[in-house]
Design brief:
Length: 306
């Protein structure tokens, strides 16, 4: 099978390579000429324009977008539409909001084009381990793409599935990322408690390695944590600043709209936001209130730095 890929960054490039190794023909485009050159050097076909990409694919075309969520997806689709024919399929494999995916599906269907949303997890390890894919869309275009999903997944019959109509793939991936936030927060808090227990001089890398086997908290996330601690057990040179992709926020908003209590995911999101506040006003307010009602000492900035 052949597939067009737009967006040949680390993840898109790895997906293209996994497909090539699986026997598929890949035609790739990226705004970076270097990224296109890397693709052609590996044995796939490069395109310098979207027009060239469309011409190098035979009908019915299938084009996978790996571009940032939001406006870039809409802009790319708008540029692609005049180049496509009825029956062609656009696949969004990025981290789009599921409501945007529902809208895009309706708009494209009105013009005779198919839209498939694929929540994709696996990151930079996907080339070696395979990608977990949560797929939304109509049955016919999804079934036609089965060979692609089978090649990209960890196994032909595992790690991927058609979960529902358009938007469902990105909805499930959104919740997946919300759960990921909570898991990461729990691991981080647990390791911090152990790191603070100075009298025991605990080896965090050793403990992470022990937990990887037989423990009820073992996971791929713990595998990655163990590898990171082995390389840098003191976390030297790292800033306590944590970004969020947006999907954790969307999960919290959805939980509120559905009247679902999700305190762990919500708190983990708030902790990420908190990490970006240097000498934040909130903590200073709490300190001064404790001083007012209980006479608790307040540390000044110079004392904190000493």
């Amino acid at each position: 099978m052949e597939l067009g890929i737009i967006g040949l960054g680390k993840m898109g490039g790895n997906m293209a390579e996994r497909l090539r190794l699986g026997g598929h023909r890949v035609v790739g485009f990226d705004s970076s000429a270097e990224a296109v050159q890397r693709l052609t050097d590996s044995g796939s076909t490069g395109a310098t324009t979207l027009e060239e990409l469309a011409k190098k694919l035979s009908a019915p075309r299938a084009i996978w977008l790996m571009v940032p969520a939001g406006k870039p997806v809409d802009e790319t689709i708008a540029k692609l539409k005049p180049l496509l024919a009825k029956g062609d399929t656009i696949i969004d494999g990025g981290n789009s909001n599921y409501q945007d995916s529902q809208r895009r599906s309706r708009e494209l269907k009105a013009e005779g084009l198919n839209f498939v949303d694929v929540g994709t997890s696996g990151g930079v390890w996907g080339l070696r381990e395979g990608y977990s894919m949560m797929i939304g869309g109509d049955d016919e275009p999804v079934e036609r793409l089965y060979p692609v999903f089978e090649t990209l997944a960890p196994g032909k019959d595992k790690g991927w599935g058609h979960v529902g109509p358009a938007g469902a793939g990105h909805f499930v991936k959104m919740v997946h990322n919300g759960i990921e936030y909570g898991m990461m927060q729990a691991y981080a808090e647990g390791f911090t408690i152990m790191e603070r227990k100075d009298e025991m001089d605990l080896d965090l890398a050793q403990i992470a390695e022990i937990w990887r086997y037989g423990s009820v908290v073992r996971s791929w996330l713990l595998d990655l944590t163990a590898a990171a601690l082995e390389k840098n057990p003191e976390l030297d040179g790292l800033e306590a600043y944590v970004e969020d992709s947006g999907e954790g926020r969307w999960t919290v908003f959805e939980a509120i709209n559905l009247n679902v209590s999700a305190p762990v995911i919500t708190e983990s999101l708030l902790r990420r936001i908190r990490s970006r506040e240097e000498n934040n006003f909130t903590d200073r307010m709490i300190a001064i209130m404790r001083n007012q009602f209980g006479g608790h000492a307040v540390r000044k900035e110079k004392e904190a730095a000493a």
